[in-house]
Structure formats: structure tokens, C-alpha cells
Amino acid sequence: MEFEALQDYEIKDILAPYKEDTDLPALCDGETLGVKVGRDYVGLISLLSRRDGDWEELIITQLYIFPPFRNFGIGTQILDALSLMEGVTFIRVIATPHTASYYEDRGFERDAGHIVLTKVILNE
Q1: What is the pTM of this model?
Q2: Which of 30, 35, 112, 119 has the most C-beta neighbours closer than 10 Å?
């Protein structure tokens, strides 16, 4: 699995095979990366990053796995890979009511009742 910058690609080209899908992502500000497994793009992730002193927070504004690649644990592997990045101490997710439980099952907690979930990373 690799994350690939999309500067040389048009988002519409990567999404083209899925244009019939009514569950297409709403692309967000920040860096949007294509997620590849082998030669196949399997999804998209949009990230923001914020650093303050000794901690760095990643904010996932979008994690979208294309329908044919769902239910293979790819989303969980992406979250695990982000958790292992050097210097990352928090991962925050902007979730929908539909996706909040997915993140809660993976160790994220709701912040003050909102559907913004945080996971504290204790990398040494």
C-alpha cells in the first residue's frame, strides 16, 4: 500500500471508473492522496496537518475506499500506517453519522458529542 500525491493526476481521472457510484467523495481542502495497492488505486484520503511544539495532529477530512475494494481492511491499514508516522501524536477524523462508529471501533473517541473523533498516539 502506498500513498501517492495527485499533483500529476486529475482527480476526475482516478474517479472515472466509479462515476456511476452515487457515494462519491466530496473532495476537501488539504492534501488529497491516492491510495494504491499494487497497480490499483483503491481509494482517496484528504489530510490536513497541524504542528504545535512537540506534537503534530493529522486531521482526516476524507477517507474513501472505492466500492470494489471495501471490506478487505484497507481503511484500517491506512489508519494504522498514519498512526506509525514519526511525530504524530493525534489523529482527528471529521466523520459523518454513518461513519463515526467505524472510527470508534478503531480506537477513536468523540469530542464533546460532535462527530470529530480523536486518537492519541503514544509512539516513542
Answers
A1: 0.75
A2: 35
